[in-house]
Each structure stands twice: as structure tokens, then as C-alpha cells.
Design a protein that fits this description.
With 205 residues, this protein is mainly α. It folds into two domains: 81 residues, Orthogonal Bundle (Endonuclease Iii, domain 2); 101 residues, Endonuclease III, domain 1 (Orthogonal Bundle). The protein is built from eleven helices and no strands. The longest helix is centred in the middle third of the chain and has 22 residues. The two termini are 32 Å apart.
Amino acid sequence: MVFSIQALNASQHLSKLGSKKLSDFIAQTGPIEIPCRYGEDPLMGLCRIVIGQQLSGRAAQAIWTRIETQFTTRNARLLAFQAADVALEGVSKSKTKTLQAIALLGEKGLNQIASLSPQERDARLIALKGIGPWTVAMWNLFVLGEPDCWSDGDLILKRISNQFAAEIHMDREQWIDCASPFRSYLALYLWAFNDQAKLTDVTIR
């Protein structure tokens, strides 16, 4: 398999953060590419992430599949989100209002936000009711493919980064900063590490 230069550089950089557990896992796993988890459509991708807030991946996918079945074209889904009074099975009223705000921005508005600096972009999105740092981080990572974003509100990332930083007696936030400009890849490795630990029934210590 041919990996991107960015993925190769990220794996090399992260291997040097000092944590033996992480460097061993990277050596075992190899380079990781940023997946386009929510599709290449920025607007619908953000809507999918909002729907998935505080839900398991399986539950979020089931709700999105029902929406696609109910509204079979992208334009039909966009109009339904804009209306905000269309019943969306499994979607709360608060999420419905957030979907409306996103849909009313439209491609033009959201593309303008995406073209801003990361700090300005995050601030503009978080200003929308129902969108917080986690949602923005997931959009930056899995839709825009940003290489250097981090979500400290993610409990798995917070727990494992704390353990890896403690391994070398380093402040957790400083350790995460050392992963820049590849913090997105650090997140991918930590999630993968957690998934492997669950599969092998190994306790992460």
C-alpha cells in the first residue's frame, strides 16, 4: 500500500514523542491515513456529525440511514433541514434547530467559513447554537482532513493521552503540543490503540 508523505511524516514524528507504548504501536500499525468518515460534502458531513453528538457510531449511522431513506436526494435532505418542522426520527428538537442553522448557511456560507484560518473557522462554527469544540474538531478532521486538530473533550483521547504522557512523566497538554503539526494523526493512533485493547481484552495501564 502506498501512503501519503503526510501520513509517513506523521508516523515518524509521533514515534519520537517519548512514549514506548505509542512508538511500539506505531511500529506495529504503520502509517495511518485520515479517513473521510463523513463523506466529502462539507455541509452534509457537518449535519451527520451533529446527528452523531453523544451517540454511538452505530446509532448515529442508523439515524442517518433512515434520513436518507426518507429523503432520497441531497436536495430533499437540505430542504428538510432548512424547514426544521419536518419530523426526523431519532433527532432531538435541539439538534433539528442546529441542522436548520447549518442548512440555512448553505454551501456558500459554509465554504466561506472553511476558508478562514483554523481559529476563525472554529469561532464561527461554535457561535452556532448546538455546535461545540467536539463537533468542530470532528468536522476539521474527518471532513476537511486537517492534519493538526485535537478534541480534548473526547474521553478516550483524554484518558490515553494522560497515560502516555505519564509514562514519560510529562504534562499531558505539553505532550500533546509536541505532537503538532500532526495532532490529528495522534488522535487516530490513540483511538486505534483503544480499539485494539478492547479487541484483545487488554487493560490499558
